[in-house]
Design goal:
Elements (H helix, E strand, L loop, with lengths): L1 E2 L13 H7 L8 E2 L4 E8 L9 H8 L5 H10 L2 E3 L2 E2 L11 E8 L4 E2 L4 E6 L4 E6 L16 H9 L4 E2 L8 E7 L2 H12 L4 E9 L7 E4 L2 E5 L4 E4 L7 E10 L4 E8 L6 H8 L13 H4 L19 H12 L19 H11 L6 H18 L14 H6 L13 H5 L49 E8 L3 E4 L23 E2 L7 H4 L3 H19 L6
Parallel strand pairs: 11-18
Antiparallel strand pairs: 1-20, 2-7, 3-6, 4-5, 4-6, 8-9, 9-11, 10-11, 12-17, 12-18, 13-16, 14-15, 16-17, 18-19
Helix pairs in contact: 2-3, 9-10
Length: 541
């Protein structure tokens, strides 16, 4: 079935982003895909690096979703508990502790571009898709149903197995398996570097005309922001770049990228190292964070002389967290206090696998502050929360795991239960007490401030997986994205030179929702086999 990639673009959606933001109320932009919030309980056990540290400090430095003020509220209200009991933000974590949390999950909207299924091969058990930017492949952070794997289930009735991943902000080609056996075979091809990958990017400045190879190791130094830098302690990484176009009006280049290894943010960081970051990269392309040279040549790697080692930071905090027997820290002692610079820098140092320079820590701090400001958590001060019954009420909706909080560390490490459990189904009534005053713009179930809709242009970066080639499955490719044209009108939707993309005909909508993963897939294949046997067909066309 031949379909235009722009068939879903309405005249209203084609307006400029500024006009559209004024025209569409939150939750009604046709260029965005939304999902109704739902209650989500989960449990996790204390990790070694958390031992001896205060609960609020660990939660606010380890998790990505909310501000320190939010997590303090969650602890004091009982939404987040330790071993099923309300715990002070000053509580010092021990090896036998279990963290319980229940949230009213507000998944961020994503761009309203479908996951396009380009090919299905049932015999060899793989599919080829084109992933839109803004959608992660797996469940991560605040995303669960707005992921490639879940959207394939809900939109097409396809249960896919991802063997490699693209960053959430990156668009382009992916090959997924249709069975666990096929996923292992494909994963081996990627692991053995038998898959040739080619990407295309739009970058800042005039990229050199000759082919350039960057061979610099990469290391993730901040889990909260997912920040990767070039460091000798990192994993080997190698990328080959070649300029294929130049937009003189915007002073931006179109660059073909061939990663010879598959590291996190590899292309993005190697382009930044050359002084040509991706034009709209919110992590590696902002002069306000990286300076006028945009991080060219990498960051300073020499730890500042006054920098305290991770061991010393942990020792200091564990010592200061020690309380006399029988005494109990008061949550009110920290209420309303922010995180000072020394503590902030210490938190950053603790989350890094290496000691960091002052420049590196300041970059991470800036990125974290920008995220908090963008989410506007100051709105929390506008309302008083009384939510002590939340965890207990929601716990009744979920079956007990039967695990004891005193279970040994080794036994827990072998437990099959994941950190994230299934969502609570149905329209479960809110267990939270409604505040006396709820300002406009707050959720009427969990009473958190609702963020404004994002501008669709900010949900992706100009990086696209163009083609994959494997010896077993052959070569697969998408057309060039519209933003790769040298003379470009700024509309990123669609493909260069008006090209169209061929999609296969697959089930969608309500029918897809009835498909029950493995059992239904086996039943479908059995029916297909019987039909082919009776009609004389020999294979998938």
């Amino acid at each position: 079935m031949l379909r235009s990639v722009r068939e879903n673009v309405t005249p209203a959606a084609a307006e400029s982003s500024a006009a559209a933001q004024h025209r569409y109320p939150t939750g009604h932009d046709p260029r965005l895909r939304y999902i109704k919030p739902y209650w989500w309980p989960y449990q996790t056990y204390v990790k070694e690096r958390w031992l001896g540290r205060q609960l609020l400090e660990v939660i606010s430095s380890e998790f990505r979703d909310r501000s320190v003020d939010y997590y303090r509220h969650a602890l004091e209200s009982g939404v987040t508990r330790i071993n099923g009991v309300i715990a002070s933000p000053l509580y010092v974590l021990k090896g036998s502790d279990r963290l319980d949390n229940t949230v009213h999950r507000h998944e961020p909207p994503v761009a309203n571009d479908p996951v396009r299924v380009l090919h299905i091969d049932k015999e060899r058990e793989f599919i080829v898709i084109s992933k839109p930017g803004s959608v992660p492949v797996h469940a991560t952070g605040r995303y669960f149903r707005h992921t490639v794997l879940e959207m394939l289930k809900s939109d097409y009735g396809i249960h896919g197995y991802a063997v490699n991943r693209l960053d959430r902000l990156t668009s382009g080609l992916m090959i997924l398996a249709l069975s666990s056996k096929a996923s292992r075979q494909l994963a081996d091809e990627f692991a053995n570097k038998e898959v040739k990958k080619e990407y295309v990017a739009r970058v800042k400045g005039k990229f050199p005309n000759e082919e350039i190879t960057v061979d610099q190791p990469l290391l993730t130094v901040d889990r909260q922001m997912g920040l990767v830098i070039i460091a000798p302690e990192g994993k080997d990484a190698k990328t080959v770049f070649l300029r294929i176009g130049y937009d003189a009006e915007r002073d931006e280049s179109i660059v073909r990228c061939r990663p010879l290894t598959g590291r996190t943010h590899q292309i993005r960081v190697h382009l930044q190292f050359l002084g040509h970051p991706i034009s709209n990269d919110p992590l590696y392309g902002m002069a306000s964070v990286w300076g006028e040279n945009l991080g060219q040549g990498g960051v300073d790697l020499v730890p500042e002389e006054s920098s305290t080692s991770v061991t010393d930071i942990l020792a200091q905090r564990q010592s200061s967290n020690a309380t006399p027997s029988g005494s109990k820290p008061k949550a009110a002692e920290t209420k309303g206090k922010g995180v000072d610079e020394e503590t902030e820098m210490g938190n950053i140092e603790l989350s890094s696998p290496i000691r960091l320079s002052r420049q590196a820590k300041e970059i991470i701090a800036k990125l974290r502050r920008m995220k908090d400001e963008a989410e506007d958590w100051v709105k929390w001060k506008e309302v008083i929360f009384t939510t002590q019954q939340a965890q207990a009420s929601l716990a009744q909706a979920q079956p007990s795991t039967g695990e004891s909080s005193s279970a040994s560390q080794s036994a827990r490490s072998k437990a099959s239960a994941p950190d994230l459990s299934d969502p609570i189904h149905g329209n479960h009534a809110s267990p939270l007490q409604r505040p006396d005053f709820l300002p406009p713009g707050f959720c009427d179930q969990c009473y958190v401030p609702l963020p404004d809709d994002p501008t669709p242009e900010t949900l992706f970066i100009y990086l696209h997986a163009l083609s994959y080639t494997t010896e077993r499955l052959g070569k697969w490719a998408t057309p060039m994205p519209r933003w790769t044209m040298e003379v470009w009108d700024g509309d990123w939707r669609g493909w260069a030179d008006g090209q169209e993309i061929m999609e296969v005909g697959v089930r969608k909508g309500a029918e897809a929702e009835k498909v029950e993963e493995a059992d239904s897939r086996e039943a479908d294949e059995k029916v297909d086999g019987e039909k082919k046997a009776s009609s004389g067909e020999t294979g998938e066309q």
